[in-house]
């Protein structure tokens, strides 16, 4: 496998950044993950816009222009022969002697890009079975709208889910409402057929899959409500699912050990999953 590291394409085994990279020492960086499907980037313009926004919020410069960055992504995809999978890119504030405040403006941000093949069959099998989620108290900082590489609470939550035989952990805020998953946005379908997800105003990363799915819902004229919901409401829902770039619409069939609906993936999640890419852009 080949990675892009600050202007060079390197074998992954030799690809490295300096130990004083601020991403390594402070998690002082931003990342993006984009799905690759049919050899193309899915919804890349939206991911790029979110990258730009996140970087702006923490005052890191975009590492290069739009066209150059897109070209790097395509080159990484090409060199890794990824037809179906994901691309990962991260931008950190660069390399400097350790000191919390920003380094001199002459320090350039570091850009790393990797790509990997995923198993399409495995992903589809998972969607056919559905996943289990657990709930955990929200313990992240309030700026989860920034796609920061500081993911320690997310790492611990995902590990706890795994150790309990689940695939994802949903964070629950102090008012008792689900915010989002450790690496996905959370949705339910009520017994009356309304599709519900929390507003992007607070407590969540504004997911690109979430945004595209809202367009799918509008086009299919499906009932949609943007509001918070509780784990209890999820447990009593007809269906639940999560959204994320490489999972698209992934049915949730169990929450904290209790089945949702019939305990099997529901028709609405399946319908949304099948329509999703008709509303994505490919580049
Ligand atoms: N929330 C969190 C915390 C995430 O890490 C992700 C995945 N990047 C998402 C939501 C879903 O975002 P997207 O649809 O853009 O992948």
From TrEMBL:
GO terms classed as biological process: amino acid biosynthetic process; branched-chain amino acid biosynthetic process
Pathway(s) served: Amino-acid biosynthesis; L-leucine biosynthesis; L-leucine from 3-methyl-2-oxobutanoate: step 4/4; Amino-acid biosynthesis; L-isoleucine biosynthesis; L-isoleucine from 2-oxobutanoate: step 4/4; Amino-acid biosynthesis; L-valine biosynthesis; L-valine from pyruvate: step 4/4
Tree of life domain: Bacteria
Enzyme class: transferase
Any Pfam family: Aminotran_4
Reactions listed under catalytic activity: L-isoleucine + 2-oxoglutarate = (S)-3-methyl-2-oxopentanoate + L-glutamate; L-valine + 2-oxoglutarate = 3-methyl-2-oxobutanoate + L-glutamate; L-leucine + 2-oxoglutarate = 4-methyl-2-oxopentanoate + L-glutamate
Record keywords: Amino-acid biosynthesis, Aminotransferase, Branched-chain amino acid biosynthesis, Pyridoxal phosphate, Transferase
Gene3D superfamilies linked: 3.30.470.10, D-amino Acid Aminotransferase, subunit A, domain 2 (3.20.10.10)
Gene Ontology terms: cellular component: cytosol
GO molecular function, one term: L-leucine-2-oxoglutarate transaminase activity
Cofactor: pyridoxal 5'-phosphate
EC number(s) on file: 2.6.1.42
Family named by the database record: Belongs to the class-IV pyridoxal-phosphate-dependent aminotransferase family.
Function of the molecule: Acts on leucine, isoleucine and valine.
Protein name: Probable branched-chain-amino-acid aminotransferase
Gene: dat
């Amino acid at each position: 496998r080949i990675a892009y590291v600050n202007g060079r394409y390197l074998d992954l085994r030799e690809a490295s950044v300096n130990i004083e990279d601020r991403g390594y020492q402070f998690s002082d960086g931003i990342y993006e993950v984009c799905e690759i499907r049919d050899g193309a980037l899915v919804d890349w313009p939206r991911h790029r816009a979110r990258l730009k926004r996140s970087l702006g919020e923490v005052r890191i410069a975009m590492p290069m222009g739009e066209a150059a960055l897109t070209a790097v992504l395509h080159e990484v995809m090409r060199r890794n022969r990824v037809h179906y999978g994901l691309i990962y890119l991260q931008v950190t504030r660069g390399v400097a002697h350790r000191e919390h405040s920003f380094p001199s403006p002459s320090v350039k941000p570091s850009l790393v890009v990797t790509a990997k093949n995923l198993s399409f069959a495995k992903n589809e099998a998972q969607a056919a079975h559905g996943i289990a989620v657990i709930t955990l108290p929200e313990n992240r900082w309030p700026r989860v709208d920034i796609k920061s590489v500081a993911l320690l609470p997310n790492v611990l939550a995902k590990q706890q889910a795994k150790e309990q035989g689940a695939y994802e952990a949903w964070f629950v805020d102090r008012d008792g409402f689900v915010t989002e998953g450790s690496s996905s946005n959370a949705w339910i379908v009520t017994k009356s057929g309304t599709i519900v997800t929390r507003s992007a105003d607070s407590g969540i990363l504004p997911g690109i899959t979430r945004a595209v799915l809202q367009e799918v819902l509008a086009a299919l004229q499906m009932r949609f409500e943007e509001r918070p919901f509780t784990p209890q409401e999820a447990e009593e829902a007809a269906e639940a699912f999560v959204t994320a770039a490489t999972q698209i619409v992934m049915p949730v069939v169990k929450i904290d050990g209790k089945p949702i609906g019939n305990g099997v993936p529901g028709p609405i999640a399946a319908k949304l999953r099948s329509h999703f890419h008709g509303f994505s852009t490919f580049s």
